[in-house]
Write a structure and sequence with these properties.
Elements lengths: L2 E3 H7 L1 H8 L4 E5 L2 E6 L2 H27 L9 H12 L1
Parallel strand pairs: 1-2
Antiparallel strand pairs: 2-3
């Protein structure tokens, strides 16, 4: 994990983060715990795009299930909850 203490950022400024970003995302350590992650703009954009792609794929799969009749309608939220409880057993 590429990390940098928050104190280094306070002391050295953004240059400390810039240097650390050369090795990938930077975890900022505050009070001995990872508190923040700093990404380059390119890495952030890639993360957003992959998240959107995953959401689109999930939606496409859900629509395919609906079109193929692999869905169940329930009369009420209670009947849905009972069916979910039965699946857990």
């Amino acid at each position: 994990m590429n990390s940098i203490p928050a104190q280094d950022i306070k002391r050295r400024g953004i240059s400390a983060v810039d240097e650390a970003l050369h090795d990938g995302p930077v975890h900022v350590i505050k009070n001995n715990r990872p508190s923040y992650v700093v990404l380059t703009e390119a890495a952030y954009t890639e993360l957003l795009e992959s998240s959107l792609d995953a959401a689109k794929a999930h939606l496409h799969a859900s629509l395919s299930d609906l079109e193929a009749g692999r869905t169940t309608r329930y009369e009420s939220a209670d009947s849905l909850m009972k069916a979910l409880d039965a699946d857990e057993s």
